[in-house]
Amino acid sequence: MDDLKAKYLGLIAEAANEAALEDLRVQAVGKKGEISLKMRELGKMTPEERQVAGPALNALKDEINSALAAKKAALADAALDERLRSEWLDVTLPSRGRRAGTLHPISQVSEEVTAIFAELGFSVAEGPRIDTDWYNFDALNIPSHHPARAEMDTFYMHRAEGDNRPPHVLRTHTSPVQIRSMEKMGAPIRIICPGGVYRADYDQTHTPMFHQVEGLAIDTDISMANLKWVLEEFVKAFFEVDDVELRFRASHFPFTEPSAEVDIRCSWEDGTLKVGEGDDWLEILGSGMVHPKVLEAGGIDPAVYQGFAFGMGIDRIAMLKYGIPDLRAFFDSDLRWLRHYGFSALDMPTLHGGLSR
Question: In whole angstroms, what is the distance from residue 94 CA to residue 81 CA?
Fold first, then answer.
């Protein structure tokens, strides 16, 4: 045992790297190592011999393992010292400038819209982006033959054969949130519903996924006059102008009656939109009085309550306000574009402190 101890302690001390050290560990205390083979011989000894040889072999094994661990740590320290000597950083070199992140225009405009309607007494409601076709169409008085329900316009979720659950769709507008809010909160109610929506369309002014904000106000004495005032206040605050003129044009939407598309008086000078002046008109949203069937679907008695609803594209009003020419750029993840159109993450939009930079 003394010879084994001297042999392996000497070899361990001379090991140049961890690979050589591992080879020594296998030779000494591995399953077929010399010390392990010696320990197997204990079974052939007499009890008296085992009482002497057993503790000695265990002590030898512990000493060899301790020497292996100490040498491994020493080799690791030596390797770290070598890295520290060979890998160095010149701290006198000028550092690279760090740029603060910016808010995407969609996030900025969503915050601006929320701030404006919060001042008008509206709360924010949210709902699922995948919803049943009942919430997305039927509850909103959209008939089964309506072209919006065709697969060429709406993304339907796949259903396995034999699946009896109602069809699910990627919501085509945030109006399903209005139905869910009416079911949950009842009337009176005053909410806006911002969020992402999906339609099968793609060009300079359309993308398969975009963002809308819809508003809903229901009470016993709400009229189109209330709708007109709310929209006028919103447009003045959002475009940061003192006065604005709106034009309501009769239209048709299944979920409102009467329905109206809303235009704002504006002018274009050198490609820049000026709201509230000029001889041009620009359509910005659709609106109307909530259809009685929609109120019934939301669990509200249309004989007692009435209200208005409106909806507009967040992406569209962001393009108009900040002069962004192509809707598709919103989703390109181009850092140059984001740096140009981005907003400071620390500037929270308020009506009193200013909405935009």
Answer: 27
pLDDT digits (tens, 9 = 90+) for 130-179: 999 899 998 998 888 888 878 778 888 887 777 778 888 899 999 999 99
- Report the SS3 class of residue 88: coil
- Tokens representing 22 are 């591992």
Please say if the pLDDT value at position 210 is more than 80: yes
Q: Does residue 357 register a pLDDT over 60?
A: no
User: Which residues of 121-271 form beta strands (DSSP E)?
Assistant: 123-124, 130-132, 168-170, 189-198, 209-219, 246-253, 256-269
> Three-state DSSP class for 92?
coil
pLDDT per residue as tens digits for the range 27-84: 888 888 887 887 777 778 888 887 888 888 888 888 888 888 888 898 888 888 888 8
* Helices and strands: H and E segment counts in the chain: 11, 12
Kindly provide the b/e burial profile for residues 154-184, where b requires at least 16 CB atoms within 10 angstroms of the residue's own CB. bbeeeeeeeeeeeebbbbbbbbbbbbbbbee
Show the beta-strand stretches assigned E in 104-245: 123-124, 130-132, 168-170, 189-198, 209-219
CA distance 82 to 292: 80
Specify whether the CB–CB gap between 327 and 105 falls below 8 A.
no
The answer for residues whose C-beta is within 8 angstroms of residue 310's C-beta and 6 or more apart is 214, 215, 227, 230, 231, 262, 285, 286, 287, 288
The DSSP call for residue 331 is G
Going through the chain in order, the beta strands assigned E by DSSP cover 102-103, 123-124, 130-132, 168-170, 189-198, 209-219, 246-253, 256-269, 272-275, 280-290, 306-313, 343-344
Phi and psi at 59, nearest 5°, equal -65, -40
